[in-house]
Specification:
Elements: H1 3-19, H2 27-38, E1 42-51, E2 54-60, H3 61-77, E3 85-89, H4 95-106, E4 109-112, H5 119-128, E5 133-137, H6 141-145, E6 159-162, E7 170-171, H7 172-177, E8 194-200, E9 208-213, H8 214-227, E10 234-237, H9 244-256, E11 259-262, H10 271-277, E12 282-284, E13 305-308, H11 313-323, E14 327-333, E15 337-341, E16 357-358, E17 362-367, E18 380-386, H12 397-403, E19 404-405, E20 408-417, E21 423-428, E22 432-435, E23 438-441, H13 442-450, E24 455-465, E25 469-478, H14 487-495, E26 506-509, H15 523-527, E27 538-539
Parallel strand pairs: 1-11, 3-4, 3-5, 5-6, 6-7, 10-11, 12-13, 13-14, 25-26
Antiparallel strand pairs: 1-2, 8-9, 14-15, 15-16, 17-18, 18-20, 19-20, 20-21, 22-23, 24-25, 26-27
Helix pairs in contact: 2-3, 2-9, 3-4, 8-9
Length: about 550
């Protein structure tokens, strides 16, 4: 098949998906349809969750449906109703998706919380999101105690604890037991109703809450399923459930009837074993597998589809040869969901190493600094718009004014469009670091460092890393009062104020900074020397 024929086939498939009328309207319809169509099939398999009878916890689609509505009524009896903001802080356990779905059928709003957060970070998120209720696993209760200012509307009656044996807070299973499986709320839930306030690091320092609707999540999960070239039966998700991937993969499994197999945590060393044991045919591949020595048995795995983000053409080829299947790059953001994808219909090797073509329900263009549209091969900022993208940042009017232009969302990522029309990311305009699955704001770390009484100024940059994609490096300028502050003391200070994934790995002391005309640190000068950025740095992993 010729390149032009393949391109036309993809465009036709994209338009077909955009015209489909069978996508659920909301989470009630999503859950009801799944229960009716797939009833006794296993819906979720938390294969590492410990129970009284051993390890592993499963629910069928009908059991999941009933459990969700029981919890929904229990939450409603505790005061959760349409529009209520509910912060959820849990590890990968079956109570998390049940809680999210229950929030969804009520028309309430989930605020997922990163379990690495310190008390100060949790304090910011709970107050910034106007959370009214907290559902939290017992092991994270000490973080609540470290908060500086709990909102006055949250008291012990508004905190529901999972895996909890005490008497101070409401117990999750007791709240669930209050409800009935045949409970149905007597108010409507619409596609455009807010479902998540999903926090993501931004360029203005502290994380911002992306307002995502029910439609946002329905389209995200259903489009991946609809664009798949073959039926999917077993999905592996190994990221934490407060991230995007496990959430949209849950929606996908409910839509197509696949089993969602949930690991306790990401593990590159266990990846192949999990694929074999649970007959996985769809997964997101861990970056550390790139360059790993292959086994002849890798081509006999049940895998049908693997996704990866930001991989080079060489890495894609290596992975495809290793597993004998399509491995695709993709581009998405918390703000937009899916934006670009590498279609299976395109066999052209030139598409490898790019982000591919425009995903269903999306429009994309590359814009120059002067506001004009870029031509092919001209670098500019990727702008995206389309049905179901986020409604802006919660309570951040200034950030929203900067982020949107005539309905187009400015991604902050630098792209070119190749001569064949593929979109290729070549850099960032945002001051961001992408470490494993985490987006990290350089400005947030700089702010924390600047609060240290012995630090005059700090500049934080990304350092390329084969294992995690990027690592965090901080350049530190000490003030005149003291020049004996040690790297370990700086790390200890950061660890009390930042989640572990944000703490810099590399530190370098400087005597001065280069500055721009507007008196900002000229980071491009710091990183443009051509020298390995780790060379003169103290490495936290090696303590050298």
């Amino acid at each position: 098949m010729s390149f032009s024929t393949e391109m036309q086939a993809y465009i036709a498939k994209k338009h077909e998906v955009e015209r489909r009328l069978d996508f659920p309207e909301n989470f009630r319809e999503l859950l009801d349809n799944a229960s009716a169509k797939y009833s006794d099939k296993i819906a979720v398999n938390f294969f590492e969750q410990t129970t009284e009878t051993g390890v592993g916890l499963q629910l069928t689609f009908s059991e999941l449906h009933d459990k969700v509505y029981r919890l929904a009524q229990g939450l409603n009896l505790k005061g959760v109703t349409k529009g209520s903001h509910v912060a959820v802080m849990m590890s990968n356990r079956i109570e998390f998706p049940i809680t999210w779905l229950a929030i969804g059928v009520l028309g309430a709003v989930m605020v997922p919380v990163n379990t690495s957060y310190t008390g100060s970070e949790l304090d910011y998120l709970i107050n910034d999101s106007d959370s009214e209720f907290i559902v939290i696993e017992q092991q994270y209760l000490p973080v609540l105690d470290d908060m500086r200012a709990m909102p006055p509307n949250i008291n012990t009656n508004n905190i529901i604890a999972v895996d909890y044996q005490g008497h101070q807070f409401e117990q999750w299973h007791a709240v669930c037991a209050l409800g009935e499986a045949d409970f149905r709320p007597d108010w409507s839930v619409n596609a455009d109703d807010l479902l998540n306030i999903q926090y993501t690091s931004g360029t203005t320092g502290f994380p911002k809450g992306c307002m995502q609707t029910q439609k946002y999540w329905i389209l995200l999960g259903c489009v991946v399923d609809a664009m798949s070239p073959c039926p999917i039966t077993n999905i592996l998700t190994d990221h934490s459930f407060y991230y995007m991937d496990p959430q949209w993969q849950l929606v996908m499994s409910l839509h197509c009837g696949a089993r969602l197999n949930v690991a306790g945590r990401l593990s590159a060393s266990k990846f192949i074993g999990r694929i074999k044991r649970y007959d996985i045919d769809f997964a997101w591949i861990p970056r550390p597998l790139i360059g790993q020595v292959a086994s002849p048995d890798d081509r006999n795995l049940p895998l049908k589809k693997l996704f990866i983000g930001g991989a080079s053409a060489e890495s894609i080829v290596q992975l495809q040869e290793r597993f004998g299947i399509k491995v695709s790059n993709a581009y998405g953001m918390t703000e937009i969901g899916p934006g670009l994808m590498v279609p299976d219909q395109i066999s052209d090797p030139d598409i490898l190493g790019t982000c591919g073509l425009i995903a269903p329900f999306r429009e994309c263009k590359i814009v120059l600094e002067n506001g004009n549209d870029a031509t092919r091969l001209q670098p500019g900022e990727l702008w995206i718009r389309g049905d179901g993208i986020f409604n802006g940042y919660y309570n951040k009017p200034e950030a929203n004014a900067d982020a949107f232009v005539d309905g187009w969302f400015r991604t902050g990522d630098k792209f070119i469009q190749t001569e064949k029309g593929y979109f290729k990311i070549i850099g960032r305009f945002k001051d961001m670091i992408r470490r494993s699955s985490e987006n990290i704001s350089a400005l947030e770390i700089e702010y924390v460092l600047s609060q240290h009484p012995l630090i005059e100024q700090a500049a934080v940059v990304a350092v390329p890393d084969d294992y995690r994609g990027e690592e965090v490096k901080a350049y530190v300028l000490l003030n005149e009062l003291n020049n004996n502050l040690t790297p370990q003391q700086i790390i200890d200070y950061c660890q009390t104020r930042l989640a572990a994934f944000k703490v810099p790995r590399y530190l370098e002391f400087v005597h001065d900074f280069p500055y721009t005309a507007t008196k900002k640190v000229a980071k491009h000068v710091l990183i443009s020397t051509g020298v390995d950025l780790t060379k003169n740095s103290w490495d936290r992993n090696k303590h050298t």
